[in-house]
Amino acid sequence: MSQVLKSRIAVTVEDGVADLHMRDQEGKNAFSRAFVEDLVAALTKVGRDERAKVCVLRGLPDVFSAGGDRSLLLELAEGHVAPYDLLLTRTLLEVPIPTIAAMAGAAVGGGLIFGLSCDVVILAQESRYGVNFMDLGFTPGMGTTRLLQLAVGEYVAAEMMYGCQYFRGKHFVGRAQINHVEPRARVEDKARKVAWRMADKPRPALTLLKRSLSLKRRQAFEEARTVESMMHEVCFADPQTRARIRENYNSTATASAGKGGAAAEVERANRQDAAISGSLEDR
User: Fold this and answer.
1) Domains by residue range for the chain, with CATH
2) pLDDT value at position 256?
3) Cα four-point dihedral sign 75, 36, 103, 174
4) What is the rounded CA–CA span in Å between residue 33 and residue 81?
5) Where is 5: in which H helix or E strand?
6) Contact 122, 102 (CB under 8 A)
7) Rounded distance, CA 102 to CA 90, Å?
8) pLDDT tens track for 12-53
9) Confidence category of residue 171, pLDDT binned at 50, 70, 90
10) For helices 70-77 and 33-48, what crossing angle results, to 10°?
11) Would you give the DSSP letter of residue 180?
């Protein structure tokens, strides 16, 4: 049976497998206030559905999630709203059944951390992943400072957070605690196969094991949010932070087409790679 929450998020449950599809094409699955509210509602609904034994989260073919959108980041910087992104991470971590991130498309900033908060993570060899908080002028949020370390290791996480570099999925092979790195076209199929192996297990046993195995990530998140909140208070008090957010998003030619600065940054990196490859081939 299919249930559609708004039009940007679709949830289906079949044979014990819940499929949560983020499909905000216009916004590139960026975390606007409205999108976060819909996503929290969808995750809560999945967690309460007794038919569901495992949940697969997936995004658009080219973008899993572009992270926080410009308006939300500015509202956070100006102190007009509470940190909704923290609620989103916690909601995902508290889903009582195993969660699988099928990240076929690029994931940026909070969008990457959202995926890495799942119990099983599947990346695409060709897609890019990175955290761009420092490029926007403020320190990482959403539990990034600890959750990213758990997923990719302390030193790789430091490189990603300090330098805001985007890496293709194949970069993490042998360097991170990622479950699978597949060709993009196979990511969702792989996620379904992993889910089917879990779906024939009894839900009560799955929820008990999930509570135990996710404890380290839940504790890491709570530790991180305390320090991150303090760092955000300092960063957001600086007027230059708001100016940098505006500059980053307004400087992209694709922003007016519905793509946030983060998603456009990944696209620019892809074009640069293509240009370099073409130049080498001409030599």
Assistant:
1) 2-186+194-200+207-239 (3.90.226.10)
2) 31
3) positive
4) 9
5) strand 2-5
6) yes
7) 19
8) 999 999 999 999 998 899 988 889 999 999 999 999 999 999
9) very high
10) 100
11) E
The type of residue at 24 is: D
Q: What is the pTM of this model?
A: 0.86
Tokens of 215: 């404890």
Is residue 14 classed as helix, strand or coil in its secondary structure? strand
CA separation for the pair 113, 213 (Å, rounded): 18
Measure CA 175 to chain center: 19
- Radius of gyration, CA atoms only, the chain: 18
Name the E strands within 32-134.
Answer: 54-58, 63-65, 99-103, 106-108, 120-124, 128-130
In whole numbers, what is the pLDDT of the chain averaged over residues? 86
Which tokens belong to 64?
């899993």
Q: Are 66 and 132 in contact (CB under 8 A)?
A: no
Provide the b/e sequence for 220-238 (b: ≥16 CB within 10 Å): bbeebbeebeeebeebbee
